[in-house]
Amino acid sequence: MQKPIFEALVIGAGMAGASAAAHLAPTRRVALLEAEERPGLHSTGRSAALWEPNWGHADSRALTRASHGFLTAPPPGFAEVPLTTPRRALHLAPPDQVAELEAAIAATADFQAISPEDARRIVPALRPGYAAAAALESVVLDIDVASLHQGFLRMARAAGAVVLPNQRAARIERRDGLWQVETEAGESFAAPILVNAAGAWGDAVTAMAGLPKLGLQPKRRTALIVDPSPWPVSAWPLVGDIGASWYARPEAATRLMLSPADETDCEPGDAQPDELDIAIAVDRLTQAMDIAIRRVEHRWAGLRSFLPDRSMAIGPSGAPGFFQMIGQGGYGIQTAPAQGRLLAALVNDSDPGELAPVAALVDPRRFQTVPA
């Protein structure tokens, strides 16, 4: 079969790959290769993301802030609904976490210390005595993940990109100045540029291309939906302990989404929730709040993939034309617009502007350099 020649291949059509394709397509003919029957089946489709500029390492914080303008005022026609809605975050400190909260307040201008009594006025279900201290973070936004993801796919297609589901990479090699990708469906694609945006499968794609792995580790995160009746929760902030052992946030106006904030090492795949993690989440919530959980209405798990230093890898790998866009951890959604913009600038060897300092932080070559 004759190989269709593109100018860039992007492997993975989750949020990272969709953003990469959307930003590359105006200047290059792009093929977006997705392993599953539809884009966003794994981490993207299972994410309940917030825009939180005060969390993560320096790279994720910078990329989060650089994404704010796009998320709050996307290009015309990008989405039919607003991508964000205001939400606050309430951080609680049981007695053994007070020092951690005080350090966070000192280091973060947007953390306003409030009394435990004020915290209970904001979230009346809090049990007296659970929190010895509290802080309110006001500059937080809910993100409509599905609309953001579909917007990037729409933007990519409008610029000429081809989105191809059911094209799981089976073999990758560089030959005659092109990256050659053969898929399990028997199709072949070639382009001088290959972008690895394969999420939890990022190291598998890297190895398939004959390059050293970066040490990517997928970690399972569990979530569930519960009924908080009789409490009205729609106006509640996201709430959790500063030690990040649990958090909850309103869902669909009358429900709570709850997570034990777990990070369990696992292999890439279709993540499923563990019953023990569900029980831990319920126990931690009921210790903090006067809510009787009679049943779990919905449960799921997703993968958040981290590199050894917990920063991202965005940019050239050291091998000609091979670019990484992996290791987003828990920050891939809120940083997606800036990630795509940075990736396109690096692929096109153009000025990344205010993102130039970030490029150094996320350079994949910090792990190893592959001789050209």
Essential attributes:
about 30% strand, about 375 residues, single chain, six-stranded mixed sheet, ten-stranded mixed sheet, alpha+beta
Please outline the helices and strands.
Blueprint: E1 8-11, H1 15-24, E2 30-33, E3 50-51, H2 58-72, E4 84-93, H3 98-107, E5 111-114, H4 116-122, E6 133-143, H5 145-158, E7 162-164, E8 169-175, E9 178-183, E10 188-191, E11 194-196, H6 202-208, E12 217-226, E13 238-241, E14 247-251, E15 255-259, E16 264-265, H7 275-288, E17 296-306, E18 313-316, E19 322-326, H8 336-347, H9 356-361
Written overview of the protein:
The model has no long low-confidence stretch (mean pLDDT 94). Helix 1 (15-24) runs parallel beside helix 5 (145-158) and helix 2 (58-72) packs across helix 8. Strands 3, 4, 5, 6, 12, 13, 14, 15, 16 and 17 form a 10-stranded mixed sheet that branches. This protein has a 6-stranded mixed sheet with strand order 7-2-1-11-19-18, with helices on both faces. 48% of the residues are buried. It has helices at residues 15-24, 58-72, 98-107, 116-122, 145-158, 202-208, 275-288, 336-347, 356-361, and strands at 8-11, 30-33, 50-51, 84-93, 111-114, 133-143, 162-164, 169-175, 178-183, 188-191, 194-196, 217-226, 238-241, 247-251, 255-259, 264-265, 296-306, 313-316, 322-326. The protein contains 9 helices and 19 strands. It is an alpha+beta fold.
